[in-house]
Amino acid sequence: MDKAEMASLFEAFKLNELWMHLIPKLSEGIKMKLEPYVHVDVGGSKIGGMPDLPDSIAWPHAYEQPLAFVAQINLSEVTEWDLDEKLPTSGWLYFFYDALNEHWGNVPEDYWHFAVRYFDGDISQLKPAVPPEKLASENQFLSANTVFYPQTTFPDESSVAWPKVGLTRKQWMSLGDLEEHVYELNSGRYNQLLGHSTNLQSGMEQLCVQMSQHFFETEHGSADDWVLLLQLDSNDKECGMMWGDCGVLYFWIREQDLAQRRFEKCWCVMQCF
């Protein structure tokens, strides 16, 4: 859905005034549609399965227990949809999470229960990883291919980017109906790179500031610095993934760190219903 299509949607739900306030807050995201049971070549983007890792990247562990591999993004496959040119144009991003213990990301110790790795070498250096010996069954998922397409996004009402505008009860109800319609258009999934997050609970930017200051010295910045890197739904039918009770994983990063490819400075939050 592009900006023009979204404008028509807000008009259809009689939210024209709100739309005018949201226009300066719009952000370009990259939606991901999953295709289960489709073969993915080495180095291709995938959700679940086993990563294709170079020798320079070891499988992340939390207290000697291997984390679950949840996503591999071939950045060359998403460059054309990265309209704001925020991501590197080459390389691979790997996302890991402790699916066995499902940490919420609301205490500093949760830093050890997720990991984001970046590799910008040649594809010839990648090879299918062998699952670690102690990898729990809860930390293993089926693999699904990913198809990317652009998506203009507007901020969640609990986000720091939400405009300071008053809405009537009727308008709030219309907004809820609109959001449900967008969810259905996206096949009932919140899989996305960049853009605004779709929050199941409260906004997460301030939480990222509070948690990151325990690890990143004085560089944690303000809530406005944090942007969504990856939003991963409970893709239970496609991959056997379930975060809490039909929840979503959110990987956040400061814009400065994203620009400098410092992906070790991400923060992960899990929310569920």
UniProtKB/TrEMBL annotation:
It comes from the Bacteria. Gene3D superfamilies: YwqG-like (2.30.320.10). InterPro entries: DUF1963, YwqG-like_sf. This is DUF1963 domain-containing protein. The lineage of its organism: Bacteria, Pseudomonadati, Pseudomonadota, Betaproteobacteria, Neisseriales.
